[in-house]
Amino acid sequence: MNRLLNIVRIIVSIILCIILIVLFLNLANVTTQLFLTPFLLAALATLGLSISIYKENDLLIVFFQKCYIISFLLYWFGLLILGCYTALKDKQMGMLLFSIPFWIAGIFIIKKYFFDKK
Questions:
Q1: Taking the model in full, what pTM does it have?
Q2: Are 69 and 61 in contact (CB under 8 A)?
Q3: Burial level of 70, CB count in 10 A (0-12/13-18/19+)?
Q4: Alpha-carbon distance 22 to 64, whole Å?
Q5: What is the model's pLDDT at position 32?
Q6: 37 close to 70: Cβ distance less than 8 angstroms
Q7: Where are the alpha helices (DSSP H) in 2-92?
Q8: pLDDT tens digits for 1-33?
Q9: What is the rounded distance in angstroms from the CA atom of residue 115 to the CA atom of residue 97?
Q10: Are 114 and 73 in contact (CB under 8 A)?
Q11: Greatest Cα-to-Cα distance within the chain, rounded to the nearest angstrom
């Protein structure tokens, strides 16, 4: 049953990757492509992770987990930078204060997944 679930995950990941790649290649707007890039990277990392779990390769499992976290953080900090830029441009200092917990959360995720020894 577990191997069947992994095969389903691989198939779903392949379909998602194909959809995102087609979307990415058909977009003429660079801004939209930049917005889509972390999702594409996360989908590719999920595909690699699913295949690594199916093949029971622990080294690749750890690698693709880190790739997934990096793609998530790329999106996380990209939105924060965009939000802070917009807040500065519009002179909304309250929004900058509102973003502080999210910066702390992102730094905590980096510390947890890349610097804590298990």
A1: 0.82
A2: no
A3: middle
A4: 22
A5: 82
A6: no
A7: 2-26, 30-55, 58-89
A8: 688 888 999 999 999 999 999 988 888 788 888
A9: 27
A10: no
A11: 56
Burial string for 77-111 (b: 16+ CB within 10 Å, else e) reads beebeebeeebeeeeeeeeeeebeeeeeebeeeee
Q: Are 107 and 80 in contact (CB under 8 A)?
A: no
Rounded distance between C-alpha atoms, residue 111 and residue 82, angstroms: 23
- 76: its two tokens: 């996380």
Tens digit of pLDDT for each residue in 35-88? 888 999 999 999 999 999 999 999 999 999 999 999 999 999 999 999 999 999
| Distance separating alpha carbons of residues 107 and 111, to the nearest angstrom | 6
Cα–Cα dist 107/16, whole Å: 29
- Reduced to 3 states (helix: H, G, I; strand: E, B; else coil), residue 91 is coil
Query: The tokens of 33 are what?
Result: 């492509």
Instruction: Tell me 117's DSSP state.
Output: -
